[in-house]
Specification:
Elements (H helix, E strand, L loop, with lengths): L3 H15 L3 E2 H8 L3 H13 L3 E8 L5 E7 L12
Antiparallel strand pairs: 1-3, 2-3
Helix pairs in contact: 1-3, 2-3
């Protein structure tokens, strides 16, 4: 059984990535979650093969950060089926 809050957060992150690639910081700001929570969600979805970071961009400090995107954009699973 999946934690309902986890399923909800995963669903929101996937929905945001359907709009286009996003950095960790953009996801954190948009979802209003901690950096650790976003990292956990990204790790979870990456391990499932649902998202990946095929390229990087420079942040405001010039550091390289991953640009996350959906691996398969056919459809987003319904809540509870993640």
């Amino acid at each position: 059984m999946t934690d309902p809050l986890l399923a909800q957060d995963l669903q929101k992150l996937l929905a945001l990535l359907q709009e286009g690639p996003k950095t960790h910081g953009e996801l954190m700001t948009t979802m209003r979650l901690s950096s650790a929570r976003i990292a956990s969600l990204i790790r979870n979805l990456q391990q499932r093969g649902q998202i990946y970071a095929p390229r990087c961009v420079a942040d405001s400090r010039g550091r390289t950060v991953n640009l996350w995107e959906l691996r398969n954009t056919e459809s987003i699973p319904e809540p509870g089926k993640i």
